[in-house]
């Protein structure tokens, strides 16, 4: 959502909505495992979640069959898969890549994803499931089982330093 106040655009990031990221973030994060912007800055889309004081973005992919195969392999090996989900978001099925989630601060959000001039969001039940899975993955990481591809500790450190400098 964007609001115009005294000629200044202020972003209000809403949990469960889809966003796109500024290119600057990828330069600062310096992590090759992040799903980077396409040349037109329209993909990938990221689902925004809040976890404590940090904003988290979870990338989405339209490559359903690719990720369904990975999910099937994980279920066969471990009995479940919490790091990738296939869910309907914005009217179409998306691969929800929790394994590629990362922390971010609002200044690196470029714009909200729109479909037919309407902001795109996950329904509450899907948002809640994704958020619960993210919390589980973070708990597992704290216990030494890191299922994230991105270096979330490094990115979180950079984001927290920026928040401290901003205050």
Task: Report low-confidence residues grouped into runs of 5 or more.
Answer: 1-10
- The CATH class name reads Alpha Beta
Number of domains: 1
Number of strands: 11
Apparent shape: globular
- In the CATH hierarchy, the architecture is Roll
| Average of per-residue pLDDT values | 87
Biggest sheet character: 7 strands, antiparallel
Q: Which strand-content bin applies to the residues?
A: 25-35%
List the total number of helices: 4
Task: Classify the helix fraction into a percent range.
Answer: 25-40%
Q: How would you spell out the order of helices and strands?
A: EEEHEEHEEEEEEHH
Give the CA-CA distance, first to last residue.
24 Å
CATH topology: Thiol Ester Dehydrase, Chain A
Tell me which oligomeric state these chains represent: single chain
Structural class: alpha+beta
Rg, rounded, reads 16 Å
Search tags:
alpha+beta; 11 strands; single chain; two-stranded antiparallel ribbon; 167 residues; globular; seven-stranded antiparallel sheet; Thiol Ester Dehydrase, Chain A; disordered N terminus
């Amino acid at each position: 959502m964007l609001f115009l106040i005294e000629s200044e655009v202020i972003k209000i990031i809403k949990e469960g909505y889809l966003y796109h990221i500024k290119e600057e973030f990828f330069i600062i994060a310096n992590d090759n495992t992040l799903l980077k912007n396409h040349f037109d800055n329209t993909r990938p889309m990221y689902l925004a979640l809040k976890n404590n004081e940090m904003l988290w973005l979870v990338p989405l992919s339209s490559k359903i069959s690719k990720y369904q195969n990975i999910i099937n392999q994980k279920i066969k090996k471990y009995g479940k898969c919490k790091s990738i989900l296939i869910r309907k978001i914005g009217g179409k099925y998306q691969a929800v890549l929790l394994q590629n989630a990362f922390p971010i601060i609002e200044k690196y959000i470029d714009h909200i994803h729109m479909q037919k001039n309407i902001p795109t969001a996950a329904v509450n039940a899907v948002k809640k499931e994704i958020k619960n899975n993210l919390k589980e993955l973070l708990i597992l990481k704290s216990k030494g089982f890191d299922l994230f591809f991105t270096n979330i500790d490094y990115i979180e450190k950079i984001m927290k330093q920026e928040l401290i400098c901003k205050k």
